Amino acid sequence: MTNIIRPNFGGRDREAEPAMAAEALHIYGTAAGYLVALLEDAGGPEGRCLKVVTGSVGGNVFETVAVMPATDEGRIDADMAAMAVLRALEVVEQGSGPASA
To answer: Is 0.70 surpassed by the pTM of this model?
Structure first.
């Protein structure tokens, strides 16, 4: 899937994106001051889909980092993508880098 994590993450103009009012299907957790959650959206050009989003804890601006079809298989893929994003944020929060050899 080419749309799991886009290479231009954070590089788009957020003003151009329409506001999405949706309730989270699942909140995976928080790390490094960010929340990772799963939303279902039917209003976009791709139709009904699952979106993994992340944004500042306590904020109201969230960035979509993964889009999956709203199927059982799509939910599995969304769960895996969300857990990878959350783990990456945990690593950033801990401040640990690659181990020196």
So the answer is: yes
Collect all residues with Cβ–Cβ distance below 8 Å to 77 and sequence separation of at least 6: 1, 4, 66, 68
Cβ–Cβ contacts within 10 Å for residue 14, how many?
9
- CB atoms near residue 16 (< 10 Å): 6
User: Do the Cβ atoms of 68 and 49 come closer than 8 Å?
Assistant: yes
Measured distance CA(82)–CA(27) in Å, rounded: 9
pLDDT tens, residue order, the chain (101 aa): 444 445 555 555 545 455 556 788 999 999 999 999 999 998 877 789 999 999 999 988 999 999 999 999 999 999 999 999 999 999 999 986 565 54
How is residue 66 written in tokens?
């993964």
Rounded CA-CA distance 22/6 in Å is 22
CB 15 within 8 A of CB 40: no
